[in-house]
């Protein structure tokens, strides 16, 4: 038996082509009706920072993303979108469930989504939606069975490969040759076209591999940034006020000194070879996203051609950000802005005016309740997220001004400690629970984000910010209690006042 198959071969195995649907039909099909309820398409990337959008004020390497920019022009761009845990699997589970990781239980990249846990795909499936997941699932390491909530299922084990990934296609494994981004896009487009004559609304989630490392751009984008000189980020040299664990991380797999990408032996490595390695690292990361933008354009076109575009809630986002040398680090997990801030663009002309800009802080846990409200589906019960539909309507009263960030220590990757933090519109306070191996190693961090957006200067030991610190500690305790995160297991200072006016911590 031939282990491999081309994309053309693959498409012939999963259903009729659009031409066959038109000329001959594909079994018993319903009439081509536009459903009253909206369809939903969600595209996820892996490790994409917020500044990898062409509409961003200073996009990384000046990246151009015309298809994503069009979604934003025709819909809404959420300028301050954050994830609540900067790690792939916990974050993806939060998107699905509307819950923090300490509640949904997917604490690391080796844990699958609980089969008994509610999610917005399950809720939409219960409401009569056709549901599909295509691409990188990335919760647990296996791909042996369809996850609850999905009628149609294509994924693979673990990370997948940029070229020639082995996919589980509704229970049958096949090597599908080609570049990952293009392969899953073709799968998604074909599925959408096969749904054109159904009266049922649909949900399709498309999980991209890009820009997860090791970065491998498609050949046509391999050299488009070669003309750019890319300096080392300035925040990589401002570590004097940081806790000791950050400087210790420099020589690990998640640090700029470490072996993962072999930048240097002395940082910053000013040798031509060292500079080339760092520049290629950043260029390759960014180049993979250009292919993702092409994918967004292909899905947009498919929805347009099938007459479903304006009746579809089209969402683009990512599971977490990524550090490209900032603060001396690569990878994610930390609470730094590059790690927690991700893109969110949503198009749905029936509810979103063109060129809408949302400045309020929205979170990964908000996607599930928002989609369900837009679909007029019953909400998930006892979740942490809030629907941002009110923000689309211009109603910001009562919206959050502070939120909880959490990361849970992984013994497989011991380079980052437990993290519990609170971010407001101006301040960020980062606490490291169980830091009992010395005050300097897990010293807390405080940043004034309005005056120091790159988080260079940790103010935690500056006495003039004592009142701010006290209020933020109290707010952190309140958020831990409110979300059921057992603050007694994450001890803060004793005797901290927990009641404070909300406006004082904006």
Summed up:
With 506 residues, the protein is of the alpha/beta class. The protein contains 13 helices and 19 strands. A hairpin with a 2-residue loop joins β7 (163-169) and β8.
Explain the overall architecture.
By secondary structure, the protein is an alpha/beta fold. It has two domains: 4-16 and 36-219 and 281-392, Alkaline Phosphatase, subunit A; 402-505, Arylsulfatase, C-terminal domain (2-Layer Sandwich), CATH 3.30.1120.10. 26% of the residues lie in helices and 17% in strands. The strands form four sheets. It has an eleven-stranded mixed sheet, with helices on both faces. It has a four-stranded antiparallel sheet with strand order 16-17-18-19, with helices on one face. The longest helix is centred in the middle third of the chain and has 34 residues, at 272-305. The termini are far apart. Residues 1-8, 10-34 and 488-506 have low confidence and may be disordered.
């Amino acid at each position: 038996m031939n282990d491999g198959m081309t994309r053309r071969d693959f498409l012939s195995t999963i259903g009729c082509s659009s031409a066959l649907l038109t000329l001959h039909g594909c079994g018993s099909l319903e009439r081509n009706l536009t459903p009253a309820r909206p369809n939903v398409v969600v595209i996820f990337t892996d490790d994409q920072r917020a500044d990898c959008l062409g509409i961003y004020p200073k996009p990384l390497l000046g990246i151009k993303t015309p298809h994503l920019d069009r979604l934003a022009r025709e819909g809404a761009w959420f300028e301050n979108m954050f994830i609540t845990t900067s790690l792939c699997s916990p974050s993806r589970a939060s998107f699905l469930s509307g819950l923090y990781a300490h509640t949904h239980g997917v604490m690391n990249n080796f844990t699958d989504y609980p089969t008994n846990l509610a999610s917005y795909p399950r809720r939409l499936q219960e409401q009569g939606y056709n549901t599909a997941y295509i691409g990188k699932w990335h919760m647990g390491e296996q791909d042996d069975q369809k996850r609850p909530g999905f009628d149609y299922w294509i994924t693979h084990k673990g990370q997948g490969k940029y070229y020639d990934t082995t996919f589980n296609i509704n229970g049958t494994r096949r090597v599908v040759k080609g570049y990952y981004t293009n392969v899953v896009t073709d799968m998604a487009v074909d599925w959408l076209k096969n749904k054109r004559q159904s009266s049922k609304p649909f949900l399709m989630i498309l999980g991209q591999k890009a820009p997860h490392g090791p970065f491998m751009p498609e050949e046509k984008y391999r050299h488009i940034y070669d003309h750019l000189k890319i300096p080392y980020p300035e925040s990589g040299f401002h570590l004097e006020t940081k806790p000791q664990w950050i400087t210790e991380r420099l020589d690990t797999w998640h640090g700029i000194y470490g072996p993962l990408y072999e930048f240097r032996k002395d940082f910053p490595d000013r040798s031509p070879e060292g500079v080339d390695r760092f520049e290629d690292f950043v260029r390759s990361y960014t180049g993979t996203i250009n292919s993702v933008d092409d994918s967004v354009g292909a899905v947009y076109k498919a929805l347009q051609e099938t007459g479903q575009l304006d009746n579809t809630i089209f969402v683009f986002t990512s599971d977490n950000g990524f550090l490209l040398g900032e603060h001396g680090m690569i990878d994610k997990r930390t609470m730094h802005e590059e790690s927690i801030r991700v893109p969110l663009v949503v198009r749905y002309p029936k509810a979103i005016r063109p060129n809408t800009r949302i400045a309020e802080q929205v979170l990964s846990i908000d996607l599930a309740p928002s989609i369900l409200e837009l679909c007029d589906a019953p909400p998930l019960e006892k979740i942490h997220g809030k629907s941002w539909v009110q923000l689309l309507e211009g109603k910001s009263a009562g919206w959050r001004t502070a939120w909880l960030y959490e990361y849970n220590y992984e013994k497989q990757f011991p380079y980052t400690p437990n993290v519990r933090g609170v971010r407001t519109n101006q301040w960020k306070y980062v606490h490291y629970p169980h830091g009992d191996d010395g005050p300097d190693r897990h010293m807390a961090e405080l940043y004034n984000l309005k005056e120091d957006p790159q988080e260079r200067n940790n103010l935690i030991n500056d006495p003039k910010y004592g009142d701010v610190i006290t209020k933020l500690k109290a707010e952190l305790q309140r958020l831990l209690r409110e979300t059921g995160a057992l603050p007694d297991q994450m001890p803060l200072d004793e005797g901290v006042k927990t009641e404070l006016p909300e406006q004082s911590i904006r």
